[in-house]
Amino acid sequence: MNILSINWYPGHMAKAKRLIREDLKLVDMVIELLDARIPSSSTNPDFSSLYHNKIRVIVLNKADYADPDKTKKWQDHYQNQNMPVVAINALNKKDINNVRKFLFSLADEKRKQIRKQKGINKTIRAMVVGIPNVGKSTFINSITGKSKAKTGDRPGITKVKQWFRVTPYFELLDTPGLLWPKFEEELIGLHLAYVGSIKEEIIQPEEVAFRFLEEMSESYPDLLKTRFQLNHIDREGHELLAEIAVKRGWLQSGGIADIERAAKQVLYEYQAGIIGRTTLELPY
Ligand SMILES: Nc1nc2c(ncn2[C@@H]2O[C@H](COP(=O)(O)OP(=O)(O)OP(=O)(O)O)[C@@H](O)[C@H]2O)c(=O)[nH]1
Ligand SMILES: [Mg+2]
């Protein structure tokens, strides 16, 4: 079964992509937010060539939901490629203070360089990009200390780009979340669906939840057992989901397990970090 409906790529994303490409000309820095649970799948392959000549900063966001040891491996991976990287919870004050200092020092360095070359005191502009629901607007609100950017626990909240002034010399651009039309591997689409980056209406929640349970039973069996009180997890996803539905009392008339409800709830609990801290991908 295909997890996505055919022709799922929304027209507004194609349009947003064009606008982002144009705006890239105006910015000195790109802050790329990745989901710390799936750094590889949340990297937009369409964009890597566009970061040429820009300061590129990787932010592993929602690190509070990720496995700390694996986050460290990802940080080392980017550092080894000389890419500035931070791992944060965008809702944590201490994390945000650190990342703010880090960004200001990068921006200052760039400003000094431009002043030396051109004799002007330029405002440094940074574009915040990333997949839907990764936390771009939350990150901007935390950095500016205001809640001007609209946020929400669903993908597709930010519809248009918007500039935010952080200091007289540093501005951030919020952008709509972007995906790309074709995933190289099915697993990329699945991982994006697990973390809630793909709209619920265009995925097959049952299929996604089956695959999620099977993957978790391999990678994080104890978390799965504990959260859903399962004894035997070496079974197929649909059997696991049926047992979860029965255990939680989600039944349809006639006492049949309500698989659709259970699928949505399991995915919601993962997206909300309730199941526990996981990282589903490693840098090698
Ligand atoms: N636990 C946790 N939640 C976060 C973090 N960052 C953002 N969130 C939550 O993630 C959800 C999505 O945040 P947004 O800031 O709206 O995400 P976005 O990337 O702007 O999404 P779009 O505009 O739809 O592309 C919200 O419920 C935030 O509260 C984080 O680091 N940790
Ligand atoms: Mg947003």
Question: What does the model show?
Answer:
It is a single chain. The chain has 284 residues and is α/β, with parallel strands linked by helices. The protein folds into two domains: 11-174, Rossmann fold (3-Layer(aba) Sandwich); 204-271, Conserved Hypothetical Protein Ylqf, Chain: A, domain 2 (Orthogonal Bundle), CATH 1.10.1580.10. The chain contains nine helices and six strands, in the order αββαβαβαββααααα. It has helices spanning 11-23, 68-80, 93-118, 136-144, 186-194, 205-219, 221-228, 237-248, 259-271, and strands at 29-35, 55-61, 85-87, 124-130, 162-167, 170-174. A hairpin with a 2-residue loop joins strand 5 (162-167) and strand 6. Helix 5 (186-194) packs across helix 6 (205-219) and helix 6 crosses helix 9. The protein binds guanosine-5'-triphosphate and magnesium ion (MG).
How are the SSEs placed, and which strands pair?
Elements: H1 11-23, E1 29-35, E2 55-61, H2 68-80, E3 85-87, H3 93-118, E4 124-130, H4 136-144, E5 162-167, E6 170-174, H5 186-194, H6 205-219, H7 221-228, H8 237-248, H9 259-271
Parallel strand pairs: 1-2, 1-4, 2-3, 4-6
Antiparallel strand pairs: 5-6
Helix pairs in contact: 5-6, 6-7, 6-8, 6-9, 8-9
Bound molecules: guanosine-5'-triphosphate and magnesium ion.
